């Protein structure tokens, strides 16, 4: 099994199957403001609004407040209530780990870029065992939910269909990792536990490239922690005075 994280997510607002008057009202408002963008038929959304006009009005008001808050704060807050994908059902999203694979690598190409430097050749693929692990994780979650009486997962198509769907939707993340992975064994990695390149005394690497696999969330805080750890390691090796960890801790005023 691979590490995997699941969470509930909002339904696609353009799909009227969610049955939400508020979501349909927001979609219709967006369609009126940007008529070139909408492609879905509007009638099902109008029917959703007609079934619960007060809820639709509340949805528009909430959307307006969120938009105003985004303009003031500079970022869009998340909705506090999830839009169901269908009555009594919610969309389930996941992020799955991709283990290290020697065939997935970065190398220098034979051609050069506009400033004469070698271009990168990136070899990347998803293995069938990784796809199988994702589908198997969903099956185990479904079994757990049913055993606890907490719900169930609604699968679409046959198991082969689900394997094909996972493979078709799998891609690299927005935070590329690996390429100079950490390992105590020089044959299995590029840097050691202190992030120093094997066989090179004065070369350290601090980035997401040292992570042997990916987690659920972006790696920024982990990379920062590794950078601080390496700075401390180099400073101690040089005999420099190292600031105590307490200097970096937040203080909370007494009540």
Give the helix/strand class: alpha+beta
Give the fraction of residues assigned to helices: 25-40%
How much is the average pLDDT?
84
**Could you list the spans in which at least 5 consecutive residues all have pLDDT below 50?**
250-255
Main sheet specs: 2 strands, antiparallel
Radius of gyration: 25 Å
> Strand sequence of the main sheet, in spatial order?
1-2
> Helix count, per DSSP?
6
Distance between the termini: 47 Å
What's the number of structural domains?
Answer: 3
Strand content: 5-15%
Order of helices and strands: EHHHEEEHHH
Q: Give the overall form.
A: elongated
Number of strands: 4
How would you explain this protein's 3D organization?
The protein contains six helices and four strands. The protein folds into three domains: 63 residues, no CATH class; 72 residues, no CATH class; 76 residues, no CATH class. It has a two-stranded antiparallel sheet with strand order 1-2. A two-stranded antiparallel sheet has the order 3-4. The two termini are 47 Å apart. A hairpin with a 5-residue loop joins strand 3 and strand 4. It has 255 residues and is α+β, with helices and mostly antiparallel strands. The protein is elongated. Helix 1 crosses helix 2, helix 1 crosses helix 3 and helix 4 crosses helix 5.
Would you kindly provide a brief summary of this structure?
The chain has 255 residues and is an alpha+beta fold. Helices cover 37% and strands 10% of the residues.
């Amino acid at each position: 099994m691979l590490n995997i994280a699941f969470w509930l997510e909002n339904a696609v607002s353009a799909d009227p199957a969610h049955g939400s008057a508020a979501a349909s009202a927001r979609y219709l408002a967006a369609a009126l403001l940007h008529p070139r963008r909408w492609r879905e038929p509007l009638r099902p959304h109008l029917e959703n609004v007609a079934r619960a006009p007060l809820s639709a009005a509340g949805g528009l008001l909430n959307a307006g407040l969120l938009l105003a808050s985004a303009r003031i704060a500079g970022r869009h807050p998340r909705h506090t209530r999830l839009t169901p994908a269908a009555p009594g059902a919610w969309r389930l999203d996941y992020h799955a780990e991709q283990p290290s694979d020697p065939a997935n690598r970065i190398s220098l190409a034979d051609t050069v870029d506009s400033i004469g430097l070698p271009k990168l050749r990136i070899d990347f693929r998803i293995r069938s065992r990784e796809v199988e692990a994702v589908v198997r994780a969903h099956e185990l979650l479904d079994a757990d939910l049913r055993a606890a009486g907490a719900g169930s997962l609604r699968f679409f198509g046959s198991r082969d269909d689900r394997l094909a769907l996972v493979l078709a939707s799998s891609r690299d993340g927005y935070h590329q990792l690996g390429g100079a992975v950490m390992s105590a064994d020089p044959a299995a990695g590029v840097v050691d536990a202190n992030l120093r390149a094997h066989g090179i005394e004065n070369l350290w690497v601090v980035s997401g490239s040292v992570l042997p696999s990916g987690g659920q969330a972006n790696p920024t805080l982990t990379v920062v922690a590794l950078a601080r750890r390496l700075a401390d390691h180099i400073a101690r090796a040089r005999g420099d005075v190292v600031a105590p960890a307490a200097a970096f801790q937040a203080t909370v005023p007494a009540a």
